[in-house]
Every structure is written in C-alpha cells, then in structure tokens.
Amino acid sequence: MNAVDAPMRAVQRVLGVPRIGWMFVAPNLAILGLFTFLPIVVNFYFAFTGGVQLYPSERPFTGLENLETLFECESYLDPSTCRKDLFWRAIYNTGKFALLQVGLMVAFALITALVLNRKILGRGFFRGVFFYPVLLSPVVVALIWKWVLQREGVLNAVLAGAGASPVGWLSDASWAFFWCVFVSIWAHMGFYTLILLAGLQAIPADLYEAAAMDSASPWRRFSRITLPLLMPNLIVVLVLGLIRAVQIFDEVFVLTGGGPGSATTFIVQFIYQTGFAESIHQYGLAAAASLVLALSLLVLTLLQLRMTRKNLAGGKANGDG
Amino acid sequence: MPENARRICASAVVALSLVVGVAFAGEIRVACYSDGNECEVTQDLAKRFEAQNADVKVAIDKVPYKAILEQLPVQLAAGEGPDIARVTDLGGLSKYYLDITPYVKDPKYWEANFGQTLLWMRPTANDKGIYGMMTQLTVTGPYVNKTLFEQANVPLPGPQATWDQWVDASRKVAKATQVPFAVAFDRSGHRFAGPAISMGAKYFDARGNLVIDDGYKTMAKKLYDWNRDGTMPKEVWGGVGGSTYRDAFEEFANGRVVMYLSGSWQIRRMDTQIGKNFDWIAVPNPCGPAACTGIPGGAAFVALKRTKNPKDVGRFLDYLASEPVYAEYMARTENIPAHAGVAKKGVDYKISPQAKAALNTFVAEVPKLSPVAYQIQGYKLNRAVFNPTAARLGQAIAGEMSLDDALKRIGADIDEQVKASGK
Amino acid sequence: MASVTTILSARRGRGKPDWTDWFSYGYLLLGLVLMFGPVLWLVLSSFKSAAALNEFPPQLLPYGQKSIAVPGQEKPLPLYRVTMPDGATRELAEVRRIGIQATLVDPKAPDQEYKVNIRDRKPVREFRLATENYSEIFDKFSFGTYLWNSVFITIVATLITLLFNAMAAFALSKYRFGGRDAVFLVIISTLMIPPTIILVPNFLVVSELGLLNSLWGVIWPAVATPTGVFLLRQYMLTIPDELIDAARMDYASEWRIFWRIILPLSAPALAVLAIFSVMWRWNDFLWPLIVLSRTEKFTLQLALNAFQGELTTQWHYLLAMTVITLLPVTLVFAFLQKYITTGIASAGVK
Prior knowledge:
The structure holds three protein chains of three kinds.
Chain A: H1 2-15, H2 21-47, H3 65-70, H4 85-116, H5 123-135, H6 138-149, H7 154-161, H8 173-201, H9 205-213, H10 218-246, H11 250-255, H12 267-277, H13 283-317
Chain B: H1 2-20, E1 27-32, H2 38-52, E2 57-62, H3 65-77, E3 84-87, H4 107-118, E4 132-134, E5 138-145, H5 146-152, H6 163-177, E6 181-185, H7 189-198, H8 214-228, H9 234-238, H10 249-253, E7 257-263, H11 267-273, E8 280-282, E9 296-297, E10 300-303, H12 310-321, H13 323-333, H14 340-345, H15 353-365, H16 371-378, H17 383-397, H18 403-422
Parallel strand pairs in B: 1-2, 1-3, 6-7
Antiparallel strand pairs in B: 3-10, 4-10, 5-7, 5-8, 5-9
Chain C: H1 2-11, H2 19-46, H3 50-53, E1 63-65, E2 67-68, E3 77-83, E4 89-98, E5 101-106, E6 109-117, E7 121-123, E8 125-127, H4 132-140, H5 143-174, H6 180-189, H7 199-208, H8 215-219, H9 226-236, H10 241-249, H11 254-265, H12 267-283, H13 286-291, H14 300-310, H15 315-348
Antiparallel strand pairs in C: 1-8, 2-3, 3-4, 3-7, 4-5, 5-6
C-alpha cells in the first residue's frame, strides 16, 4: 500500500482532490473501454464488411449488404420466404420465448414471493431452496435436465410406470421449446423472487392494518395495496427478465443445441453459429445480426427507463414516495 | 515420477510464457483429437522422438473434435494456434499450411508412399508441396448388430445387396427383436455422400462447380422418408440444430439400432465400449444404381505456417512417417494405413478378432471407392455442401420445412458459402 | 412486529389453518421437490456404473452386477438368474457368450455347463456405489487441470474485481468532478450490452493483446462489472462524509482514505460482491468458450461442454464431472446463503 501511496499523493497534488476521482474510476473505465466500447465500434465496422477474414483491414467494405441479406424477405411474417430463414426463425423463436418465459417466470416469482412473505416455518430455508438453481452454471443446469429428459431418463420412467408411453422430450419441436422455457424459469426464478420479496417486505404493515379495519377482502388488499406498491420492483423484474430472456444462449445451447431442426435456435445462437461455429465464418453477417439485437435491447431499456420514470411520477402524484 | 516433474516444469514454462509472451525455442505444439487412442499413441511416439532428438520438445494438446472443428479455424485466422494439428477439413484449412518439403529428409519417399493423399492437402491442383501426413485412411461404411439378426432369424444380405434390401432386412430384424429403429446414419453430410454417390449423385457439374443433382435428391428423399416413417431415429438428424455433428454411436452401442452407417475410425471405440456385449460386424457398403461406395477420408497431421520452428516440425513429421513408426502407429490405433508401403506389407494388428474382421472389411472397400468419392473428399470447399446437407435435411426431418424447400435451400446455401469463401 | 403477526394470523382465522396455509405449504413442498429433485437425481445417478445407467426404467439406487469367484476360472464371473427349461430359476455364472447363446455354470458345481439363450437370463444385482466414476475422470481427463483453471480465474478475477469496482464506486459516490454522472451512466449502460454483440471484435482485441488461450484473457475483460460498481456505490453513499472530511483534515491522502477507511467500512457490500463474482466467474461459459481453445486451459464449464459432445455414450463420467462442478457453488450456497439473499434483496430495492 505504501508503494501506491506516494505516487497517488503526487497525482493528488497535480489534480486536486475533486478530480482525483478520475484516478479511482480510471482502471474500471479502461477495462470497459478496451473490452466493451472499442469492440462495439469495431463491431459496427464489421457489420458493414464482407468476406471471411478476421482482421478488419483485410475485409472488403460492402456497405449495407449484410443488413440487406438479413432483411431480404418476401414476407417478414414467414421465415421460410426469407433468404436468411434461420435468422428470422431465431427472431421469432426469441420473441416467443421472451414473452412466454418472462410472463410465466414473473408470475411464479410473484406467487413464490407472496408465499414466502407469510409467517411460515423454515422461511429462510425455503428462500434458499428457490434460489439454489440460480447459483448453478448454465452448463450444469442444462446437463441436469438433459439427464432427466433423456429418452431413457427418469421422467419417461415415471411415465412408463404410470402406464403412458415414453416421449422424446427433446426431439419434438414443441416439447423442446417448452422445456427450454421451463428450464430457464427453473434456473432464474429464485433471483427475481428475492427482489420481489424484498419489495413486499418494504410495504409498511400499517397499511394492511388499516385495510383489515375496513374489512377489505384479500383480493382487494392485494390489488389496492400490494400491487401498486410493488410496481417498481415488478417493473425492474420484468425488464431485467426480458433483457436476459432475449439474450438466452448458454442453457439452451447445451440442452438442445438449437434443435430439433431450428425449433430452439435463438438469436444469440444464430450469431454464434454464423460467426464461429460454421466452418465458413461470416463475421460480417454475425456482426450485422448482433446490431439488430443491440437495437432491440436498447429499445427495451429505454422502455424501462420511461416506465420507471412514469411510475415514480405517478407515485409522486398520489402523494406517496 | 519424471512424468509429474516434467508436467510441473511444462506448466512453469507455460506460465512464464504467459507473462513474457515468447514461444519456447525448440518446442512444437501439436493439437490432437482422438477417435480412439490416437493422441495417447502420438504422445508415446513423441516421447521416443524427444529421446532421440534432445533439442526438441513436443507437446501434445489433447482436444475434443469439436475444438478442431470450431475453434482451430478461428485461432488460425487470428494468427494463433499450434504448430501441428490433426484435422479432417484438409482442403478448407489449406491456406494455413506449411510446405515441409525443405525440412524433410526425402521428399520422394513422401511422394511414393503418401502420393494420393498429399493431393488432398494442397491448396491448388498444380501445387507440389508436402503439407502433412495422413494419420489414417478412413472409409465410411455400415456396421451391423449380427446378434440381432441371429435372434430374428433373418439372413444377412449379401455383398451386392442394395440399400433398400438392407433397410428391409433391418426393418424385419427390428420388428422381430423389438428394437426401436432399423437404421441410423451419423448426422453428417460426409456420411451421407457415400449412399448419395451410390444413388448416382455426381456432386460436381461439367464445369467443376458444386451441384445438387437427381442422385443426391433420390438419396435425400430416402433419408427423409426413413426418418419420418420410424425406420431411423429422428433425434440424430432432426434432434440438433445447424450443421452440428452428431454421431449415432450411442444408439448402436445400446442395441437400439440394427444397422449403423459410420466409418472405420469407430472400430477401436466399438471394441472398447461394445466389446463382447453383442456381435458387431462391418459389412460392405450397400449398392445403388451407380455404385456401392463409401467416402474415403481421414485425419492428417498438418504443418502450420505460423510455426516458429519449421525445421523441428519437419523432423517430427518425418519421424512419424517413417515406416516402422507408422506401422506401429497403425497397429496400436487400429486404423487403415495411408502409407502405401505399410499397407502393402500389411499391419500386424493386435486386436480382437471382431475388430480385425471389421478392419479387413473396410480395407476391402478401398478399391471399390467411386472416383466421385475421391473428388468430393479432395475438394477444398466440400464443407460448403456437407454442412448444409446436415443442417437443411435435419430441418426437413424435424418437420420444419418440406423436403423440396430443404433441397432448394441447400442449393442456395452452397452458392452463398462458395461466394463468401471466394471473396 | 407483534401487531403484524396478529394481523397476519388474524387473516388466517384464529389458530386454525385455512386454505391459504395449505396452499402455501403445498406450493413450498412442490418447489422443494422441483428445485432439489433433479439435482439429487443427478448425484444419485453419478454413482451408478455405466451399464446400470443404460437401463430403462432406471433403478432408484445404484446397483452393480454381482460377480462370483468360480473354482477353475481366473477372474470372477458375472452372476445371472436363469430360467431353466423345467421352470425353476437358478443363479449361474456366465463363462462366455457367443451370438445369442450364453454358456453358464453353477458356481458350486462348475463341471456342468448350461447353454442358455441370452433372453432367458437376468443379471443379479447388489447395491454398489460406482466411485470409480469419480476417480477415473481425474486419471483420464486431466480433471485436476480444469479444476485449477476454474479456481485460478475465479479467485484472481474476484480480487481484481473487488479492487477496481471499489475504486470506481468510491469515486462515483464521494467525489464531485465534472462528468461524474455521465461516467456513472456510461458504466451502467454497459449492463445493457450483451456479450454476444461484441464477441467477434472482443476476440480480436484479446488476440491482439496476446491474451488468447491465456487465463488472463478470461480474467481481464470480466473485472469491470457494472453491477459491482452499482452495488458498492449504493453502499458507499451511506458512509458519512464527515469521516472523510476528518481524515482529510489530518492530511491523509485520498488513497489512504480509500484504503484505510472506505474499504473496511464497505466490508458487507464487498462480501456480497465477492460472492457474486465467485459465482459469475465460476459459471462463465460463452466468453471462455471463445478465448480458450487449448484443453489444458479449459475451465470446468468448458470441459463439461466439450465432453458432453464427446461422451454422449459415457454418461457415467459426465455425471461425475457435473457433480464436481456444482459442488463448490453448492458449498458456498449452504454456508453463505443468508448473505447472498440479503445482498440481492438490497440491490433490488433501488
């Protein structure tokens, strides 16, 4: 520490106390600059070049060609009419997945948070139970469920025991999609449950007291007190969940590899496949696709900012907050 | 133990080079993947080489096949990677190869013994360089669960039987023994090419461009129908996405499939994992109207341009290519030799009778290989047709698109990839 | 507090559980089964031998086939339960199998051989933990190396993360300098950037820096976590400014203030970030997948992924590897669960 102290004092003399803040923030900014912002700029350049070379200087400039390839469709609603049908399938799959997964996950997280908010035995233990899968790595999560869902796995064994015939869970398109949603919810629900739980616990008890005095029904209590006061947390959870859902990759990649066919191929896997996994690397196309992804995420985040601001403003208007 | 001490030293060296970022002079790295035990044997031979050549260190990196397929090309594009790599996409990576003609003792020896296969590694037809050494000659062909045939009391079809006859027989066996599936193919355009060529596919048009013709379409329709009607397990071709490689070894090893189209590189794996659980045999490639062929291939140790020790690379490959060493390599890995001299003398395989019989069947397939098979295997951009074959037919089998759409898409994909590589 | 309890229990009807209680406990029990069940099944399955794993339907507990020493044979022979032609069942040891015919002998009277169709015999089982699944992976697959790589990356990255993020959080919470808010926004905005967008260019950058195939190539890009900065900043905002002013009056340098005052005071938040960082780095997948291609550099997650393609037949090894990979995180969870859950709760309440 002493070694750092002397040079820091010197810098301090030069910059003055307020500006030494820059020194402290510098390492973080440097890393972000080098490994986040610089690549973003380069990625922009990649999206407008073609060829299979890795080095930007060796790539021929092709302008909007990559984006044109991606968007070349007779009908945007039918991926099979598109030149890059896999890209559009991935987009629709991702959209479907994001809406389904986030909707269901937030619903379950809410129910779980409400249940955990009650006075029950072993509350801390159960809180941990739901949170445990969040700690597992996506590869482990996928392997756990792959093992359960195998054609000769335990789920089919239970079915066979009950007299039904075994199902190829991961080789049927709709079931594979379902399981991707399920496994994703399984692995992440606990995190959002905790956020909602914290929000629930922050609601002052006297509000419920007052409602009890007015003999309000449980549903009224929920819709008039709980829901509005929980709204900021719900918005956070929804948007965070959406942002993560749109970027789903790791679990699904290991669980289904994008199959069967392209039923569970999502946008990030498309980017990975186009740029890395295929033997003919189309870096430019991958970069262009990632631009599309970035744009949609930007929209989502701006939406969140607007909604939070609106919610806060709304709250202020009602006299709370 | 000297083994551990060396490992510790090697780790220290690697750690140092991480900090300093300098390649250790006199050391060559070999990226190796195993079908069975190729990398262990290579490591063994490398140690002997080191003992004879004290100034060179050979480090063998054992990597999964996936890494060779997916990560090695990106590494090489970035100017990174090993000095030697065991690869299967011989043509596709040829722009990274190093011509070791100046570094080997006798280039004529190489020409005489590896002539045919040296062609596969050359970037252009007029090139005369030596770029690597085939570690095996592989042939694709079917394996059959003979025990099931016996239990079902169905006779094995003869050597001239067609694909339809084999599939019929397998269906009967599957029904009688209550095995879920009759036939399985590895999910690979390379595997598919054998039966396709037998059905009349030529893969190239008159001008030498890749093309999808009637023979290809006939075989594609068969594959599609067999998957849809339950003859073949849908999970293999339709179960994963993109052009991901997936073999059907598990299905065959677990006795869930009667007949399995794969190749000679699986022999050792069959021996070790199936062993005596049931009688597995290799059978000659079934026939179609045009041929009864499989596809030749194999993995080669290729020398890479980026190496800083080309002389040592040449010496090591020379060592591996010498007749006694190569013969030992073949015997221990249970592979078919690509070395003409070794092939002529015959290899003293010390393997189970089952494996020996299978190997002999595959060796007998070599003369029957169609010239189209050699052509497509040697073509630099064969991935441009192999990958979409797996990807698009897989989509059709999974029910995502019709077979006609899939065939159209394959054509479009080929054009796109060929164009992209040309830029 | 007491009034809250009264209210809550009053809602349920005095002392008597009503439907909401049943629902709650039922839901929690279902949650327990769903959350822990698959993991337990994984652990149980990892102790089964390869042959047992191939069975369908799978047995609950790990079993191995019994083998018995027979006089006149070098190695113990596998034991089968055979249905004899007369209908009785006997336990016989198998000498060999050719085609669909097996030759078995009675271990007590090994001279008489019985020829039996393989369909008429069933293996005799006993409870056995296949611990060789675990020991063999260390021999065959240099599992120790992958473990070391994961540990190294996790620990080093966490230490650097703590330092860099604390410094940045300190600057953003306790200083007023031009552009401070902009910097904060910029750092937070990177949360919105998915790693995939910058995959290929990032690969280029790392490659140019010579960090490809180096554990440092995984560590450096990961240490500037915006969540960490946010978390620590939230906490540091609550540290009273008077402490800092007092220290300044004593002519302490800013660095000293940071190191000697701020850091110790931020210990709880640092602990939470440390736990998060350990979790993130241990579980990192996509980025190491791109950067590390030499097997000796693989982390546990990469090794698992690579071998799950190679070893689709060899689930017994794969399962054992998976269990080992999830063990450290499970231990962290078991002992530090409270910190983790409170940490997330406090981060969520913006």
